[in-house]
Amino acid sequence: MFRILQNDVPVTGRQSSPAPPVVKPPHAEGRFEQLADWVFLRKFRTEYLLIRSFPFNVVEIKQEEVHPIREFFAGRGNLDGQILQILRTAHMLDGDPGRAANHLSRHVSAILLVTTACNLACSRCFASGGDYGLGRFHMTREVIEATISYLSREITTLYQCDGFLGHAQLGLHFFGGEPFIAFDRMQFAVERAERAADGLSQTVGHCVRPDFFVTTNGTLLNSERTAFLRDHRFTVLVSIDGPDHDARRSYTSGKGSLAKVIEAFGALRAVQVPLRLNTVIRNSDVPYIREILSWFRQEVYQHEPSMAIYHTFSFEREGPAGTVGSCSSEHTSSALDEYVGELENFDASGYQLYELALRTKLATGGTFYKCSSGVKRIAVGPNGRVYPCQGFIDTKLDMGSILAPDFDHRQTKVSQCMAARNIATLLPCRNCVFSALCPHNVDCAARAHYTLGGLMQIDVNGMCRVGFDLMDRILFDCGLLDELATSKSSSSKPEEKA
Questions:
Q1: What is the spatial distance between Cα 188 and Cα 144, in angstroms, rounded to a whole number?
Q2: 35 φ, ψ (degrees, to nearest 5)
Q3: Contact 37/432 with Cβ under 8 angstroms?
Q4: Which helix (H) or strand (E) element contains residue 81?
């Protein structure tokens, strides 16, 4: 009768808490019925599914059980003890996750702005040409070592003081400017991080691995640097903006960069470096999404998505130099319908592969912080000043210096403000069934602040709607939930309840 997908997270008792104002995603009407905070009901095919949004979990119920369950969550009735126990095990009766602390460990990663110089002159760059208006500098080795020491202290505390039993990684994300302008800094950081990870593994008694990520425009890659990325297990994010790429991402000379980027993209794929591809979508692009996706199939993938690429399409955002609230992504309903439909077809053909990230999130119940800026990650500038993320390199959001012996980013007002922004406080995220699963680019705190005009804003009729519809199709229409349920059943063999 019941099929439990996730049941390995510690169970808490049912708690009562003041109900916040109900703000529902308007595109969710008619698909899911919200029975209580975090609990939703959906009729799907011939079944009824009860869904907990965080931690994300699903149980299958019979039609005759729908009314008693509705009455129970409305406070007008009781349930059979056996059913009650199943709901408790499946987290349907958990309290408000905002009251829990198990999603807040001291594990943190760092974004290194190894340089604020860039060799491109991209139009409408959110980073003001790469230097954020702060000037062009390369990161010092002292700052690199201080950052790795800080991450190492956090990981040591995580295991030795907090009793962490999971797998922590020493994570470094290289950013710019264009990071390969300062390739020697990247090499130095990688060598120091690998050495630190080896030492941490011995100190804490757990295998701590380095985790390297780089965001690059791809124009400075060569065979030596490609081999370096492969040998040190980097994940690489490259931006290609479609048929207008040359006009949007040109060299300072005015020459377009597309040919070089596609060459680099192909070279990385050839040696099987894990890749991510990002495409910035301007408001004017939305009506032409079919043509844009067709161009990617022909010019970038050559019709065959032969290697898994997590390809995101993100609406344009502003940065510290822009006018706050000047770049919203409001679109007509019909335009968004067509846009989402084309992305769904693109994904179904194997070109986006959101499923890769979804599987990881489903295995853990999802994420409490979709955007973890200033909480689970920090950005470090060339001189050691710390900011919430690469989108928030803003003197108004300075969190201190990584060089200070007593630096603790969590004690800063900026970090505490960012920690207060999560799926329990963001509306309509709190009332969205996919709040813990949606793609990371749906909820970017920097985009909310600079582009939408407020840190607590959510792009309901833009990226939010796109993410919601994609999750709905992948989880339900494409059978990912059925696949996971079968896998869970075969591994744990839960007893069927009559």
A1: 8
A2: -90, -30
A3: no
A4: helix 81-89
Beta strand segments in 258-330, E: 275-281, 309-315
Q: Count of CB atoms within 10 A of residue 84's CB?
A: 15
Residue ranges with strand state E in 74-121:
109-113
Beta carbons within 8 Å of 426's beta carbon, 6+ residues apart: 435, 443, 456, 458
Rounded-to-10 torsion of CA 115, 119, 125, 130: 20
d(CA 444, CA 278): 14
CA atoms of 256 and 121, how far apart (whole Å): 10
Sequence-ordered alpha helix ranges (H) in 165-233: 183-204, 223-231
DSSP secondary structure string for all residues of 84-95: HHHHHHTTTT--
Contact 301, 351 (CB under 8 A): yes
| Angle at 221 (CA atoms; ends 216, 227), nearest 5 degrees | 110
* pLDDT one-digit tens code per residue, 163-182: 888 889 999 999 999 999 99
For residues 420 and 371, what is the distance between their CA atoms, to the nearest angstrom? 12
For residue 419, which phi and psi values (nearest 5 degrees)?
A: -65, -25
Task: For strands 109-113 and 56-61, give the pairing.
Answer: unpaired
Whether residue 48 contacts residue 62, with contact meaning beta carbons closer than 8 Å, is answered with yes
E strands present in 362-431: 377-380, 386-387
What is the distance between the alpha carbons of residues 188 and 205, in angstroms, rounded to a whole number?
26
pLDDT digits (tens, 9 = 90+) for 16-35: 344 555 556 656 677 899 99
Q: Tell me the pLDDT tens digit for each residue of 260-313.
A: 999 999 999 999 999 999 999 998 999 999 999 999 999 999 988 888 889 999
| Sequence-distant (≥ 6) Cβ neighbours of residue 135 within 8 angstroms | 116
Q: Element (H or E) spanning 53, and its range?
A: strand 47-53
118 neighbors 129 (Cβ within 8 angstroms): yes
Facing residues of 34 across strands? 40
CA separation (Å) from 339 to 265, 289, 460?
25, 6, 15
32-66: pLDDT as tens digits:
999 999 999 999 888 899 999 999 999 999 999 99
Is residue 370 within 8 Å of residue 442, measured between CB atoms?
A: yes
Long-range contacts of 327-334 (CB under 8 A, 24+ apart): 327/450, 327/451, 328/451, 328/452, 328/453, 328/459, 328/462, 329/283, 329/451, 329/459, 329/461, 329/462, 329/463, 330/461, 330/462, 331/283, 331/286, 331/461, 331/462
Report how far residue 470's alpha carbon sits from residue 215's, in angstroms, rounded to the nearest whole number: 25
